[in-house]
Amino acid sequence: MMKKSFKVKGMHCAGCAANIEKALKKLDGISSANVNYASEKAYVEFDPDKVGGEDIRKRVEDAGYDVEEADNRKLTFKVKGMHCASCAKNTEDALKKLDGVDAVVNFASERATVNYDPVKVGYDELKSAVEAAGFEVVEDEEVEEDEDGEYSEARRRAFIAWAFTVPIMVWMIPEMFIGVAWPNMRVFNIGMVVLAAPVLAWAGSSTYKSALNSVRHGSGNMDVLIAMGTLSSYLTGVAVLFTPILNYAGVSAMIMSFHLTGRYIEARAKGRASQAIKKLLKLEAKTARVIVDGVEKEVQLKDVAVGDVMVVRPGEKIPTDGVVFDGSSSVDESMATGESMPVAKNAGDEVIGSTVNQNGLLKVRATRVGKDTFLANVIRMVEEAQGTKVPIQEFADRVTGVFVPVVVVVALLTFSSWMLFPGTMKVGAGLLQDYLPWVDLTHDSVSLAVFATVAVFVIACPCALGLATPTALMVGSGMGAENGVLIRNGAAMQALKDVRSIVFDKTGTITKGKPEVTDVIPFNGGAGGLISLAASVESGSEHPLGEAIVEKARADSAELRDITGFESVSGKGVRAEVSGKVVHVGSRRLMSDAGVDVYPAVEEVQRLEGEAKTAMFVAVDGELAGVIAVADTLKEDSVEAIAELKALGLEPAMITGDNQRTAEAIAERAGIERVLAEVLPDGKVDEIKRLQRESGVVAMVGDGINDAPALTQADVGIAIGTGTDIAIEAADVTLVRGELSSVVTAVKLSRATFSKIKQNLFWAFFYNLIALPAAVLGLAHPVIAEIAMATSSITVVTNANMLRRAKIKKF
What we know:
- The structure is a single chain.
- This protein is α+β, with helices and mostly antiparallel strands and about 800 residues long.
- About 50% of the residues lie in helices and about 20% in strands.
- The strands form 7 sheets. Strands 18-30-29-28-19-26-27 form a 7-stranded mixed beta sheet, with helices on both faces. The protein has a 6-stranded antiparallel beta sheet with strand order 20-25-24-23-22-21.
- A hairpin with a 2-residue loop joins β24 (about 615-620) and β25 (about 625-630).
- α8 runs antiparallel to α9, α9 (about 250-275) packs parallel to α28 and α13 (about 395-420) runs antiparallel to α15 (about 445-460).
- The longest helix is centred in the last third of the chain and has 36 residues, at about 740-775.
- The two termini are about 45 Å apart.
């Protein structure tokens, strides 16, 4: 399966998005299609063997909408294996054969520059074309164009509309309040028709085009309702010249003006909702100083390759992800972690591209470029999250899909009812006639029918329903990225708010993950010999406890000997041959498996474990040689974060392979009552399942690699790490900082986001449930109805943006 995302032009309401989704899902080979009206993007997952990019484009265009043009994306990547200009030409021809691709391949720089239509072709297809020509793609970088001037166009149309509508409103005042049409009724009526015409035909032309497209393709959107409402009211201005009917031509202009104003304000609000992506894109450095043949050379960021050494001076952005090659400094990593405190960097430390070097000269060797960088992954992840849907949105989507046809039917029934049963319809309106000055039941039946029907057309608002969830999700996921919390999709965010139990892996999550040797207790020989043997065996291991023993040996200048037959026994320890001796280092279970009697060390081990230390047995040729104790300290914010999670109503639990006594000692210091100790890696999944049966929704916090099965089993898997080491693909939620405060932030953010989503959905449903009946009964003036409709959409988007005021930061 392949994934594609592209921008869709011409959507004017949530109904449009629903129509495009339906059209795409009817294509054979498309497994999922999500169209986000707020971000104007479509996200499609499909089988390339059954359906292609051109089929997807055609289906969208057949539905009456436009897809972003082919030159909107630019991709640059290095081609390996070219030996002459003919190689470059062959590669270029291979790329150009792909539909929607224009390519230039430079043999001297070994780079291909490709302009392509992301709907017709994707990166995998470009790569396959190069490989089919006999070459290899070793890097790529995608450059996005700036978004178009939709906001400016919405503002221009609103200004044009009001330029004609304000004179209409001024002219209508004498007639409305004192019953005098100046200079006379005929001139007044003609004037309303003339002034309203450019508002509808000029400023509102896009609305009518959208409505016509929608109808032509057998669907309906918000613009269909506005078009029907404004045209029917405008035609009364023409009819009044020949029949005794009220003139609503001026009202049609006001409806269109308020409609366009609502679109303008909505465009501004949607821009704020999506500003997280724009902020991230602006963070990217544009150029880099690269050392070439011993000389500094300033190059475009796209020309930086893996392995290049970049020079970064104080105050400059680090161009791309890398490792400090030389120098020391403090780096502001707030753009990635949300933490304002600078981080010290020295030779060998990893740095994140687009973070700011504060003081000191750094030479950084590039390790990731283009789409592989931390920032590019964050942007992609946020975009994907914003393009997903959440379970709570499903009902709203179903309603939106049938909303317009239902409203049209209600409007026709309303007109018929007022024409056929005027006496019955007047009963409801008569109850509030004294309180609503625009309700005048003395008019003829046709005027009252038109009045109520137009109000039905323009008061109904599917947009509020369509925007309720995605706008809040856009703001929430963007805020998460700004604070070092990367949420993969909306479903994960919804599940996170419902979590009742949260399980923490001990090492590297609750603790720092950098244990140190605290006690060396030899039973035969000296401490130095014991450390030498144990460290020699552990030198073949990557476990943090083993690394601590190796570090202790180096600090004590103990000899590290050659080993043979190294074996790591998962969850128990390691064994190897050292100088002809079989050495075991590990837990009581490893010793038991090896037939080693550990009774002489039991008392010492119990004392060490009571001090929250991990005791490891060392055996040589089947005889106990001693015990080495290692301790891992709690992270600075662990106690406070655990307390905060408890205050939020969550039950924290700790899972570890440590023995029960050591685990309980660490858990007690952290403030955790529930301890799952002596759990082997393959047993963590079973423990998560048991907690799910007992507690319901469970989240698991781990390093994203060693705990992958448990993270997958949990309802929400949370990977915690630091810098570029984090496994972004490994979990539902990824925390950039290695601090438990980020877990608190994630929980608070999910709850705040879904609080806004629920508020928005409640408001959208409540508004429509109240507004439509009021319009049917003739209680809603068409202009006031349009103001209410526009306000409902604006309220939803504005409420989503207010999420930024939520207190999600730590403590």
